[in-house]
Automatic annotation (TrEMBL):
<protein>
    <submittedName>
        <fullName>Uncharacterized protein</fullName>
    </submittedName>
</protein>
<dbReference type="Pfam" id="PF14868">
    <property type="entry name" value="DUF4487"/>
</dbReference>
<dbReference type="InterPro" id="IPR027902">
    <property type="entry name" value="DUF4487"/>
</dbReference>
Length: 547
């Protein structure tokens, strides 16, 4: 008898969920005007599902989620068709936008509850969930690009952004979700750039930004969405939203999302993506969580990445983030490099002094190990790219770090490779003016002394005792930092002109092409030094240089 009662209860719950979900579908027709029936039916579905997970095991959870997703798409389609037919001058009001997006939020909230209750069953429609959140992200991006629906974009951000992320977090955080499933979900959302279709003409790209694209994105299937370039920027915006709310991610989910940071850099190298990131603005929720502001996509992305850093700082996933920052320090793409350096500077400003000091010492060791095999005069060398990153970091960090680097890599260092690393730093704008007056004066004296030692002994055979491996290194060093050192005219005297005459003569007599090229570079830097001294380039000895 007890068994029959349980079976009857299971049948009642199953039938109730099916009937109420169908009623909810019917009530949602025509824009969801039957609000009371709509609310009651779907709340009833959730209530029945919460009674006992064992009793509802026969219910197709995936079908319920698909029904909610279809309602979300229909609501957005209704808005897309209405707003796409509007005249450019007919601005969509915030009130009208709320009427459209409030039902969408209701469907999303219910989907979040279902996924949180039954993550394993929900994973069966994982790709449909991924497509749904991507469509919402793409819808937001397209609204932000059209003047007459910008208010709608603000309302959409306010009502849907957090709830959309909650839908993903419900899956990512679940203890029933395996590591493989988390990665599968993220892989379906954040697809490698090479997977996107290359068969997109300029006209199609332009059309994707037109009004009709609001309708077009809602027609994408799970299969076609994988290679749809129209969703490419939407994926970046969605990633930015997820890491913005990364404080709500559990440890395993943090590991998973951190593993996709390299994907972000890869996709940012796409010309369409990085141009949009630099030029576009998006509505975002401000720090208070109450006001919507318009912010550049670049700034919003940087802020979200910094938020992720804070949230990972006390997490085991921090080591993976730290590895990512180190591996990306020399990223060849200008935008990716700028983003990485912003994150490095943020870390330096907020990490403990001991951690920062240890990292700086490691970077100095790295530079000196490189200088033994690479010339500091090649701008594209790994050494120069490293020193460029270090100089950027020092310029935006406490001045004490500059003194620490100088101490490690100044010409007084015992390491044989330190002088070349020091020259590479000077060529990349090492902030000597951040040093104390005493250390700065010592640096100035050393650079000038090296310069005069070089030009006075230029006609002699190269000495094995020279600290530098690069011919003319003192000339390059002085030229690079002459303005910072504020060297007086009297210190750069007529000996420099005599050196130029000797250099030109050697250039003419040299048979080796590589040597002639180096003499030419040294001459160029020396003339740059002379040009900053009116007393030199107007004196009588200049005649000897010219003739």
């Amino acid at each position: 008898e007890e068994g029959n009662t349980v079976c009857n209860l299971v049948s009642i719950i199953t039938l109730g969920v099916k009937s109420l979900s169908e009623l909810g579908m019917l009530a949602a027709r025509d824009g969801g005007n039957l609000v009371t029936i709509l609310n009651t039916s779907w709340k009833g579905v959730i209530t029945l599902l919460q009674i006992d997970k064992q009793m509802v095991s026969e219910i197709d959870i995936g079908e319920i989620i698909l029904k909610l997703i279809s309602l979300i798409k229909e609501s957005l389609r209704f808005a897309a068709e209405a707003w796409s037919s509007c005249s450019v001058k007919e601005n969509v009001s915030a009130t009208e936008a709320r009427r459209v997006f409030l039902p969408v939020k209701f469907y999303l909230i219910n989907a979040v509850k279902v996924v949180a209750l039954f993550p394993s069953q929900s994973s069966l429609v994982l790709k449909d969930i991924a497509l749904c959140v991507l469509m919402i992200s793409a819808f937001k991006v397209l609204l932000s690009q059209q003047t007459h629906v910008k208010s709608a974009g603000e309302v959409m951000t306010n009502l849907l952004e957090k709830t959309t992320v909650d839908l993903l977090i419900a899956l990512l955080n679940s203890g029933e979700t395996t590591r493989e499933l988390r990665l599968t979900l993220l892989d379906s959302l954040f697809v490698d750039a090479q997977c996107f279709s290359n068969q997109i003409s300029k006209k199609q790209i332009h059309d994707s930004q037109a009004k009709s694209a609001l309708v077009d994105i809602l027609s994408l299937s799970v299969e076609s969405a994988t290679s749809a370039r129209v969703l490419l920027l939407a994926r970046v915006v969605l990633f930015q939203s997820v890491i913005r709310y990364s404080s709500e991610l559990e440890v395993d989910a943090k590991f998973a999302i951190t593993s996709k940071l390299q994907w972000l850099l890869d996709v940012l190298t796409d010309p369409e993506v990085y141009s949009s990131v630099l030029s576009s603005q998006l509505p975002v929720v401000d720090g208070s969580g109450k006001t919507i502001i318009w912010e550049s996509m670049f700034s919003a992305l940087i802020l979200s990445l910094k938020t992720l850093m804070i949230n990972l700082s006390s997490s085991p996933a921090w080591e993976e983030l730290e590895t990512f920052l180190l591996q990306s320090l020399l990223h060849p793409h200008f935008l990716c490099w700028q983003i990485i350096m912003e994150l490095w500077c943020f870390w330096v400003r907020h990490a403990t002094e001991d951690l920062v000091a240890d990292m700086i010492d490691k970077l100095c060791t790295l530079m000196m190990s490189m200088s033994s095999s690479e010339t500091p005069l090649c701008p594209d060398s790994v050494l120069r790219r490293t020193t460029k990153s270090v100089c950027f970091l020092l310029t935006h960090s406490p001045k004490s770090l500059t003194a620490r680097v100088y101490k490690n890599i100044s010409t007084e260092s015992r390491s044989e490779s330190a002088p070349d690393a020091y020259l590479a730093l000077l060529l990349e704008g090492f902030p000597l003016d951040f040093l104390t007056d005493r250390i700065k004066n010592d640096a100035k004296k050393q650079i000038i002394a090296d310069f005069f030692h070089f030009i006075e002994n230029f006609n002699e055979k190269p000495s094995n005792s020279s600290r530098h491996t690069v011919l003319g290194a003192p000339v390059f060093a002085l030229s690079a930092c002459l303005r910072i050192l504020d060297t007086s005219i009297s210190e750069i005297d007529t000996k420099t002109l005599k050196f130029v005459v000797n250099l030109i003569q050697k250039y003419k007599n040299s048979k080796d092409e590589a040597t002639r090229d180096r003499y030419s570079e040294i001459l160029s830097e020396t003339l740059s030094i002379i040009s900053r001294s009116e007393q030199l380039y107007t004196c009588q000895q200049m005649d000897n240089v010219i003739t």
